[in-house]
């Protein structure tokens, strides 16, 4: 059979017994590429992960600093992980730890208000301050690549839905700053990605299109009788309708395309946070499968919501504790830093497992591994107790996008704030010891290397050269 490598589509699978395996790059088919024939470009993917409640930050004079400080010791290529980060040792060359970044508009805000602005840099404020949000990093990228896959993006969280202002259950926000509901049920996510719709789909799409047409016509007539302020409200509403229209048209294009087939026998899709480790593994696995089958190139997963509210707080039961948020409050107790660090180590174990799987999987029909073509951001919008500065961040993957790894890039220097909460002032209420860089600078850098022709993102002031 005279296959040429450039004719093998990314969605080409070896099928049998309900299992589909992505075809590897066959050496016998690579001759054309070796002789200069054009090949398909690698897909460029982005996934962002958020964990709440900050990280262990014992002060240097505290005996726990050596073992349980989240940030590594040393710097540059000469750094060592603490026990918090040891599970990432085997993939150290695939990631960069960052310190000294935060969003300027939130630096003096209580940390529990911050998940809303993690990917947006929005002025979501705190207390009685006005809430205003903007588009999130993932959705900015989805605007550029979302039409290339069946799903523009995959939005997930452990708690599901949207939550509340400053108590979000999603880290994805549309271009008007509105929260995009996240899905938390593994079976619903799997079915959406891999289970064929019923035969009524085409008819329902046509009805949806007809209803949208009628709605737009009615709105145009109504607009002529409205005030200027009301017209702005209507225009925002019509923009939502147009987005729905785009989704209907996209759904029609994909209606006849076969869904990728994957082996579900290895997945327990009925899991809840009552089985926390398996639940977290399954959520990571679903993102892996979505990327491997090129069902989407953009994903977010909010591992937990802030302030210890919701089912995500139960994830600490994976390592023998009752509630995750409580651990961040008890660091002044005997073994407090160790307990909090043990929970963070658990999150790093499962995140590291996910990174390792991407690294071990060749890019279907492309070059390198899935990890080489996938940029991963993992972090929180708090570092020390409720402190909205010096976010703990890990950037991984994307070597084919120009990222260099195996380093600890410390822009905070020695200006670390931390220590346990003793019941009085909290670190976020103290004056900052140094000036963080705008996290949006990193986001702009990420967008540019993902191929987005952007000159700015949110409140960025430039790009980050040392990643």
Automatic annotation (TrEMBL):
InterPro entries: DUF1552 (IPR011447), TAT_signal (IPR006311). Keywords: Coiled coil. It comes from the Bacteria. Pfam families: HXXSHH. PROSITE patterns: TAT. Residues 202-232 form a coiled coil. This is DUF1552 domain-containing protein. It comes from Roseiconus nitratireducens.
